[in-house]
């Protein structure tokens, strides 16, 4: 079954506006978590639109404007690191998804959510495990979310905190990133609730 055929099974029930929703940035030690929502036209299919993790950065960047141009509606939202620390990453991810859905110019009739949790989403929804590899609409959302977050890391975080190498590791817990945190201490963009083990190791 292709990703288009996966989505078609829902469109064939009479649904016109099927949205895919995915997030980027749940795991990093710093910065906002992003989410995107996309509604694609029935009959539109591009084999290249796949799970963002399976694509090169160059390919994701090339597909980003194509998805925006072809989509009936799309929206990207984020929740910052302070809110992540306040309400935890799961709730922050759900909030980002909710904001992305609210940002759509067309109200979806069904939302396909990547993963196994869709708590608090407003419209009828269905969780799809590994959905970014199974559904074209979720894959499209995964690309928008990933590209938007990567650009934010390079253009905002790296520019604001040049000593931390955000343009390279994108906030993830690479060895170099963890070493920098121990040496320089956290910067304001770091998720304090994510650093307990790293900073504890420094004190050992």
How would you describe this protein?
The protein has 204 residues and is an alpha/beta fold. It has nine helices and five strands, in the order αββαβααββααααα. It has helices at 3-11, 57-70, 81-87, 89-102, 131-134, 136-160, 166-169, 175-184, 196-203; strands at 18-24, 33-39, 73-79, 110-114, 125-128. The protein has a five-stranded mixed beta sheet with strand order 3-2-1-4-5, sandwiched between helices. The relative contact order is 0.21. The mean pLDDT is 93.
Question: How are the elements arranged and paired?
Answer:
Layout: H1 3-11, E1 18-24, E2 33-39, H2 57-70, E3 73-79, H3 81-87, H4 89-102, E4 110-114, E5 125-128, H5 131-134, H6 136-160, H7 166-169, H8 175-184, H9 196-203
Parallel strand pairs: 1-4, 4-5
Antiparallel strand pairs: 1-2, 2-3
One letter per element, helices H and strands E, the order comes to HEEHEHHEEHHHHH
Q: Runs with pLDDT <50, length 5+?
A: none
How widely separated are the two ends?
52 Å
Strand arrangement within the widest β-sheet reads 3-2-1-4-5
Total of DSSP H or I helical runs spanning 4+ residues: 9
Radius of gyration: 18 Å
- Choose one word for the global shape: elongated
Percentage beta strand: 5-15%
Binned, the helix content reads 40-55%
* Total strands: 5
Structural class: alpha/beta
Mean pLDDT: 93
* Biggest sheet details: 5 strands, mixed
């Amino acid at each position: 079954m292709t990703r288009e055929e996966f989505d078609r099974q829902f469109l064939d029930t009479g649904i016109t506006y099927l949205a895919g929703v995915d997030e980027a940035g749940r795991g990093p030690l710093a910065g906002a978590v992003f989410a995107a929502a996309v509604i694609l036209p029935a009959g539109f299919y591009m084999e290249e639109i796949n799970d963002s993790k399976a694509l090169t950065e160059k390919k994701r960047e090339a597909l980003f404007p194509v998805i925006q141009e072809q989509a009936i509606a799309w929206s990207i939202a984020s929740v910052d690191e302070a809110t992540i620390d306040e309400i935890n990453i799961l709730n922050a991810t759900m909030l980002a998804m909710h904001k992305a859905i609210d940002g759509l110019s067309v109200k979806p009739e069904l939302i396909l959510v990547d993963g196994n949790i869709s708590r608090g989403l407003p419209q009828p929804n269905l969780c799809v495990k590994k959905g970014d590899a199974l559904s074209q609409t979720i894959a499209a959302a995964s690309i928008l979310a990933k590209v938007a977050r990567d650009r934010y890391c390079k253009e905002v975080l790296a520019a604001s905190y040049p000593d931390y190498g955000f343009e390279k590791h994108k906030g993830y817990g690479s060895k170099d990133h963890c070493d920098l945190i121990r040496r320089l201490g956290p910067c304001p963009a770091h998720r304090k609730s994510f650093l307990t083990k790293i900073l504890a190791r420094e004190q050992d």
